[in-house]
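Exercise: predict the structure of this protein bound to zinc ion.
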Amino acid sequence: MTRISPSILSSDFSNLEQEIKSLDKAGADWIHIDVMDGCFVPNITLGAPIVKAIRPHTRLPFDVHLMIRDPLAYIPDFLTAGADIITFHLESESDTKETIAAIRAGGAMASLSIKPATPVQAVFPYLDTLSMVLIMSVEPGFGGQSFQESCLEKIRILRREAQKRDLPLLIQVDGGIDENTIALCAAAGADTFAVGSTIFRADDRKAAIQHLRIAAQG
Ligand code: DX5
Ligand code: ZN
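Solution:
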């Protein structure tokens, strides 16, 4: 099953209620929410109060991607705000095991992300406690960048490892996903896709999501 998680980073921030409702109507599976602190990445977006404010506008799962220096300190805030899936970075300063444990204790799905320069084997010690791994296919910080093909080999290695251990691990890819790159990632073993510009620049979001889904199914 393919999950499409539109990233609201590319949306009209002055009208988030309408944006969320439009993505829901267009057939999104999850809503991808990019949280940036201006420290871990050179950009600042939004925090837990905004997540809380948009929570009543859809029943879709909130897929919160934390690109922040100390995710552990903010896990309680994002849990309370209504996050269903919480992704944080292995390259952050928080203790990885403790952060995974805090997310799971709060009843959310725990997910670990790696930047393009981090080898995929770095997530292996945590796989048994994770619901998902997010492989960045661009440098985190901004939407609209080009897809880096080096992520494909990471996806293949990770899928093989999860199969070997018989883990029902979700593999998400984030950055530069369009109809061509989604097909490459899905063939490599990814099943979940954060998509910004491809959906937001389309005149018809529903058609854009359908086309991505079809492309992923090969
Ligand atoms: C980048 C964010 C992405 C971004 C994707 O740091 O994590 O989720 O919004 O945008 P596109 O699909 O435009 O690359
Ligand atoms: Zn993201």
